[in-house]
């Protein structure tokens, strides 16, 4: 599912601007970053459904989505489906509406009218939100391949107690989640302080003019999700 669906659509989450409190003192007493991310990767690889938000802050070359939010699900083999709302540039025009992704097919619905299926030629250039939960391409893979991870502090994100871990990710690792990235990036994860250290938020600092970031959040992990093609 190499669709970049919806670069246009969304992928990994409108997290950003989340009110939080932090404590950056006592760094030596914080858990090891590598260990936290290892646990988080194993936990994420088992996630089969969740709610996500995606927020792009600034201009990321090759990524036409501004923000997206919705539900994700995946089958045991890694294939996935998604539905939600998105704001993006589609065929040179601003599109704000709903989307559904099932079995490599994408439908969109604007403020008026019914759902319309996008041609395969367009889908190939869109962002793929279903990649977020794909163990081989998504968040779990990124967590497993972060270099030089360092726990920087503890924060509350939307009422969840987390550890903030910063590191680096190579272009090949991050590209399935952030199309258009052509170099290594700095990445920050906020992982739950509970057992399993489930990831709550991730922020990718894209090395481009204006220092844009792509923020993704996961919540309602394990929620009942049934995503089917629109009628």
TrEMBL record:
InterPro entries registered for this protein in UniProt: LolA/LolB/LppX (IPR029046), LppX/LprAFG (IPR009830)
Endpoints of the signal sequence: 1-21
Residue ranges of the TM segments: none
Matching Gene3D superfamilies: 2.50.20.20
First-listed, main subcellular location of the protein, grouped into a coarse class: other
Official protein name in the record: LppX_LprAFG lipoprotein
CDD domains in the record: LppX-like (cd16334)
Top-level taxonomic group: Bacteria
This protein's UniProt keywords: Cell membrane, Membrane, Signal
Keyword Glycoprotein (UniProt): no
Subcellular location: Cell envelope
Gene Ontology terms: cellular component: cell envelope
Keyword Metal-binding: no
Coiled-coil parts of chain: none
Family affiliation: Belongs to the LppX/LprAFG lipoprotein family.
């Amino acid at each position: 599912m190499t669709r970049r669906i919806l670069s246009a659509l969304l992928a990994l989450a409108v997290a950003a601007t989340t009110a939080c409190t932090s404590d950056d003192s006592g760094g030596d007493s914080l858990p090891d970053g590598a260990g936290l991310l290892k646990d988080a990767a194993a936990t994420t690889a088992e996630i089969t459904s969740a709610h996500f938000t995606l927020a792009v802050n600034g201009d990321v070359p090759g990524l036409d989505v501004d923000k997206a939010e919705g539900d994700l699900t995946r089958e045991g083999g890694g294939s996935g489906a998604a539905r939600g709302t998105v704001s993006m540039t589609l065929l040179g025009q601003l599109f704000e509406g709903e989307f559904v992704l099932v079995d490599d097919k994408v439908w969109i619905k604007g403020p008026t009218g019914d759902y319309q299926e996008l041609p395969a030629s367009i889908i190939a250039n869109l962002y793929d939100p279903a990649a977020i939960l794909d163990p081989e391409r998504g968040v779990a893979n990124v967590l497993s391949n972060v270099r030089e991870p360092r726990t920087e502090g503890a924060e509350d994100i939307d009422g969840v107690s987390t550890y903030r871990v910063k590191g680096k990710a190579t272009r090949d690792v991050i590209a399935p989640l952030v199309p258009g990235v052509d170099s290594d990036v700095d990445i920050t994860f906020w992982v739950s302080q509970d057992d399993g250290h489930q990831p709550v938020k991730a922020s990718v600092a894209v090395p481009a003019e204006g220092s844009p970031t792509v923020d993704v959040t996961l919540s309602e992990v394990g929620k009942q999700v049934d995503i089917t093609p629109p009628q």
